[in-house]
Task: inverse folding
């Protein structure tokens, strides 16, 4: 505060300044921001001290040992390492993920409200709450992927063509999309439509054009991700893709009632197949599964 408002008039000046900001933003925006702030704080409070799941436990071991592989996204593991300056354990990454997630929904909600669609703004907030309640895990590559992409879409909503702010907002959105793909490489499938939305939204109505662009972007990002894993994040290959092969083989053995598909040198018996096979998932044979030794 300047010298003219110090002393007994300082409080009144702050109130007036706050009133001017609220008037400029509009009541719907202020109400949405207040609700989002409350929801964000509650989310952080409810997730504090939460334990680590199987994937997060494996990643934390890599964070501590500084020996990375590509079973889980190396970029996420490196991010978690960098956040250790704020404290050990899951809290720094959890808070960051939550802030990114609700920051994205704030951008969407406020963007709708400023376009005089306050109802869509409140609906966006509701969608965020439902998604967070049903599946959101703040120490998860899925949640980071969603958080970065929602943030990117929110930024694009504030970057209409012909405005001075469009350039840097689009750049920030592209960074958010890139980070999302790095946090979970499946995000490459969503990157193509995101790029079209940023640069040629009218093309999204042209099915074959958007499909071609999306396919090219997906392949390019998949290849770039493999290079980044090895050269940038210095991660070893875990041959995680073999899990699909293993799941297929045990499914064949179960259906044919014959473990011979594992080869003549395999000691796997039909009883092993019956104990370890699940038609729903392969996790029974994962490092944390009941058949971690398999095959």
Result:
């Amino acid at each position: 505060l300047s010298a003219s408002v110090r002393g007994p008039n300082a409080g009144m000046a702050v109130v007036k300044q706050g009133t001017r900001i609220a008037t400029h933003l509009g009541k719907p925006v202020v109400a949405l921001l207040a609700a989002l702030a409350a929801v964000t704080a509650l989310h952080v409070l409810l997730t504090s001290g939460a334990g680590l799941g199987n994937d997060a436990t494996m990643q934390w071991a890599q964070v501590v040992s500084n020996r990375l592989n590509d079973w889980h996204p190396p970029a996420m593991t490196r991010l978690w390492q960098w956040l250790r300056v704020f404290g050990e354990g899951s809290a720094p990454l959890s808070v960051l993920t939550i802030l990114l997630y609700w920051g994205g929904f704030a951008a969407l909600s406020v963007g709708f409200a400023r376009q005089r669609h306050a109802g869509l703004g409140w609906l966006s907030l509701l969608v965020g709450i439902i998604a967070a309640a049903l599946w959101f895990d703040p120490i998860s590559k899925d949640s980071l992927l969603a958080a970065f992409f929602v943030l990117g879409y929110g930024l694009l909503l504030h970057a209409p063509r012909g405005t001075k702010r469009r350039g840097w907002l689009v750049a920030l959105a592209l960074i958010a999309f890139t980070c999302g793909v790095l946090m979970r490489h499946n995000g490459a499938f969503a990157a193509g439509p995101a790029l079209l939305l940023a640069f040629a939204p009218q093309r999204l109505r042209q099915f074959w054009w958007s499909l071609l662009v999306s396919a090219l972007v997906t392949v390019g990002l998949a290849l770039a991700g493999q290079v980044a894993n090895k050269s940038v994040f210095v991660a070893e290959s875990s041959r995680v893709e073999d899990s699909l092969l293993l799941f297929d083989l045990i499914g064949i053995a179960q259906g044919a009632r014959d473990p011979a598909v594992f080869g003549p040198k395999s000691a796997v018996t039909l009883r092993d197949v019956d104990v370890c096979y699940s038609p729903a998932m392969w996790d029974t044979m994962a490092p944390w599964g009941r058949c971690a030794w398999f095959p």
User: Anything to note?
Assistant: The longest strand covers residues 68-69.
